[in-house]
Amino acid sequence: MAGIAGMRAWARTAARMQSGDWVVLALLVCGALAMMYPVLAAPSSRIIGWPGDNIQYVYAAGWMAEALRSGASPFVDPRINAPHGLALTATDVPYVGYIAVAPLTWLFGPVFGYNAQLALAHLLSGVCAYLWVRHLTGSRIGGLTAGLAFMLAPFRLAHSYGHPQIVSTYPLPLFFWALDSSLRSQPDRKTLAGLVGATFLLGAASQYYLVIGLICGMVYALLTLATRRVSLLSRVWLAVPAVFVGASLAAAPYLMTARDGIYTPYHLDVARMWSASPMNFVAPSHLHPLWGTYVERLRPETLWGEKTLYVGIVPGILALAALRAFDRRWVWIGTALVAAVLALGTDLHIGNVPLHRDHPVWLPAYYLHQLPGINLMRVWARFGVVTILFVALLAGIGAARLVHLTNGSGGAARLRISSTALLSGAIVALIVVDLMPGRMNEYTTLAPRPIDHWLARQPGDFTVGFVPVIDATTNYFILFGTLTHGKRTIAFMHQAHLPSIFQDFNERSRGFPDSASAQRLRELGIRYLLLEKPMFDGTRAFRWSVVEQRLAETPELRIVREVGDVVVVEFR
To answer: What's the CA angle centered on 315, arms 310 and 319, to 5 degrees?
Structure first.
């Protein structure tokens, strides 16, 4: 574990772990497993949620593990879109997590590796928040309160349905801890090395979090320096280069991909719809097992996967107890408020509807969206995770203060211990009830398809093309299948950032099946065209009966066989 307070504070805290700390760790492990409960019965074949982005990330976990074992680059799959290869960094991918769990992926398969990274992200998010508050207060119950409030946040639960990079929130407390240490005293080499490491982990987990961390970190630094009334240059002149080095290292794989011109900035209208509403911060999650159904009836949220930002009633109340005699309170509150404003996006929304559609009052995110690089961000609501983090941290400070007051309120020692234990237990129980994970009944059983096994049995190294690739989920199944058969194919990582060879493939297949499209596709060196019959439904593509007739009329093509729902066609 690296990246905080020059690594020195982390090492000291870990070295001092006693039996109470191990009890806390056990509780956090149980919490992390509870966040994964839909897949615990079959972690090598089940993933949380419906088929979608989650399949894409299973592929990423599988390829990165395979690349490490074979000596290839984990960031480029040469079998896809040859000769250029497929850049996995065309989307936001938690590469440091997938590299860390690669041995588990080798042993138990890519689905297990995907689930292992997700569970580890849950656990480390709680542990890192726990360690920072434990370091500040010396209180285990304070640290546990912060750890549970951050780890069990419905924001993280909602993103478990297919966004493992957004679930990877553990570098956020590390980053702000390292930044805080660098600003509150003249940083030494170890402190700066910790800041470099924390910033690297932030970007290696998610480029979204790198941008969010850099913007909110700047706010944190300005508020810290303002409240402490110290010279700006005396602290920042060393911290800024450290952050720059860590950010550059983390972003390097993405910068290499950017050279190919694959990234396409999001239009304002696309980013605008992902603006949060103020109610998103106070409305409980519809996934809550006790009152989630009532919340869903009272306030349906169609975009809950991105706009679940509930900070928690219990953490919010506990945070109020931290507003006295805590020297960082204004810095934490200010950073949380700025993050909340940025999460509101380009202009104020009520529900998912702009308050003024045609004449909006633009918020700060609108102006940030004009900047290069930042205009690649689509979901501004994700800034809300920083608000959730600091509410959880303040809740931990508040819980530590309440327990301390109870412990020092006089009376017999046995009575004080009993009162402290009851209060600690009540705080933990209330947080668990408030943020209890549940109602995650949706999971997908993911395994290679019959066509993947058939391709694996075919000798030689050749290229196949799937027709039609009409949506992202279809494409993700194609990516996942390459882990089984290893043949070359044509696909993409993100439907908004399509590689040129995939665009060329789509253009060549226009009008398929006919002689002209067959000639164009043959030039790509494709051996088999794989036609997914369910896609030919008359809406998304021609009806299958039409395709069969046109295949019979196209002398350049012939059907080889049918494997499951896929018809294999080759060039004569």
So the answer is: 120
- Tell me 408's DSSP state: T
DSSP character at residue 265:
P
Q: What is the pLDDT of residues 6-39, one digit of tens each?
A: 445 545 555 555 667 889 999 999 999 999 999 9
* Cβ-contact 377, 297 below 8 angstroms: no
Q: What string of DSSP letters covers 440-482?
A: ---EEE----HHHHHHHHS-S--EEEEE---SHHHHHHHHHHH
How far is residue 26's CA from residue 413's CA, in Å, rounded to a whole number? 28
Rg of the Cα atoms in the chain:
26
Residue 500 CA, chain-centre distance (Å), reads: 26
Q: Report yes or no on whether pTM surpasses 0.90.
A: yes
Question: Is there a contact between 47 and 443 (Cβ–Cβ < 8 Å)?
Answer: yes
Question: What's the full length of the chain, in residues?
Answer: 572
Of residues 147, 141, 212, 146, the one with CA closest to residue 175: 212
Residue 412 · residue 311 · CB < 8 Å: no
Query: How far, in Å, CA of 320 to CA of 318, rounded?
Result: 5
DSSP 533-558: GGG-BSSSS-BHHHHHHHHHT-TTEE
Residue 525: which of 455, 453, 462 has the closest Cα?
A: 462
* 471 confidence band (pLDDT: 50, 70, 90): confident
